[in-house]
DNA sequence: GTCTATAGCTGGATAGAC
DNA sequence: GTCTATCCAGCTATAGAC
């Protein structure tokens, strides 16, 4: 594949990402994707066989990226809490960096045709299984509270994924701040421990 | 409005709920909605002015229901923890009872035309504001850990809303079980309190 | 590799009979 | 209140020139 060709391929994909995220797959006309990429609609078919192929490529690329990064974290860490912290940070980092792509993954599963849906779903299932493995291990080693592993994984994924919906790169909070807030919420919950209520908040004590 | 008329109105709406949830707004043809309701597509226009009107009515009805129930909870309770428990239970109850309707609210915001989107968004904002009021009050009264109120509200809403995606009425867990698991996760988090870490296994007790 | 032109279809919505 | 018939706009995708 020659460089000029690859460049146009990427321009088309970037335009598709933008419009799929903004209007949804079915509401985004191929003509508009072509216009943003700077060519005619028919020319897209030199680079991709169909509109559906654009959606599949967006979803596959980023689900593979997400899974590979979590597999790497599990391989490099043994401590359940370190693993969880790294997994949260990784999920939030990717969902803010590739915010539109993951928003599409989160909202356009139904737009996948029967031919491709099982494959993309299997990638999503794989991610859930990796996180559940992390949680199960942490519970067996008495680091995490024993709870329903599946529901815990769904809850963590849902709240960390939704960051892709509202996060703004130049908004009130940085990625690092969002990460810190989510980490504490997931590990410690909302409730103040009854006895420890008063003087020094844990999260600032170590700064002194 | 005569009874026969209202009945067909509801049949049409129910069919729209089913197909919007299953295929998405843009991918659900009006002809299919009509077929499920047992009439011809053109007859729908006697009951609703447009396809868009079906979507708006579904979203409005259930967002109003959700807001009214949370307002009622805030009025009837004063204790922050009781309020939070009631809010979680209420959110999960509605999102499992009207699972398709809330799934549509969660995934088809982009399908709203400019004329109606601000109104539906204002209802969603209202719900977030009510929950944030609950959280803010609980933090000021030293019941909840001080944290970012907006993010905490987004996290709680995201995880409790996603129940509408995977919950199955005759599945592994009852609504009550799901509610209990979520309640503990939100208030206490995943981590076991270090001191309270259960009876110590014999082979590690000597390390203390 | 990109273009113009258009095929082929499907969709929401309307007209007007009954 | 529901029907049949149809308009017409919009879409994805293809054909074939350059």
From TrEMBL, chains A, B:
Pfam families: TetR_C_24, TetR_N. It comes from Dictyobacter alpinus. One of its GO terms (molecular function) is DNA-binding transcription factor activity. The keyword Chloroplast does not apply. Residues 6-66 form the HTH tetR-type domain. Keywords: DNA-binding, Transcription, Transcription regulation. It comes from the Bacteria. Residues 29-48 bind DNA. This is TetR family transcriptional regulator. InterPro entries: Homeodomain-like_sf, HTH-type_TetR-like_transc_reg, HTH_TetR, KstR2_TetR_C, Tet_transcr_reg_TetR-rel_C_sf.
């Amino acid at each position: 594949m020659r460089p000029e060709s690859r460049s146009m391929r990427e321009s088309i994909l970037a335009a598709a990402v933008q419009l799929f995220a903004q209007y949804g797959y079915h509401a985004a006309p191929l003509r508009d994707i072509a216009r943003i990429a700077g060519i005619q609609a028919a020319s897209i078919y030199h680079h991709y066989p169909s509109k559906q192929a654009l959606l599949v490529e967006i979803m596959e690329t980023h689900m593979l990226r997400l899974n590979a990064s979590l597999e790497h974290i599990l391989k490099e860490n043994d401590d359940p809490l370190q693993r969880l912290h790294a997994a949260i940070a990784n999920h939030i980092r990717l969902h803010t960096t590739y915010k539109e792509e993951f928003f599409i993954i989160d909202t356009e599963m139904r737009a996948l045709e029967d031919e491709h849906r099982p494959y993309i779903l299997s990638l999503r299932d794989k991610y859930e299984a990796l996180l559940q493995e992390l949680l199960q291990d942490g519970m067996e080693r008495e680091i995490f509270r024993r709870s329903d592993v599946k529901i815990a994984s769904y809850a963590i994924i849902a709240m960390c994924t939704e960051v892709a919906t509202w996060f703004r790169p130049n908004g009130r909070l940085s990625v690092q701040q969002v990460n810190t807030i989510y980490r504490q919420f997931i590990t410690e919950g909302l409730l103040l421990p009854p006895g420890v209520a008063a003087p020094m908040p844990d999260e600032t004590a170590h700064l002194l």
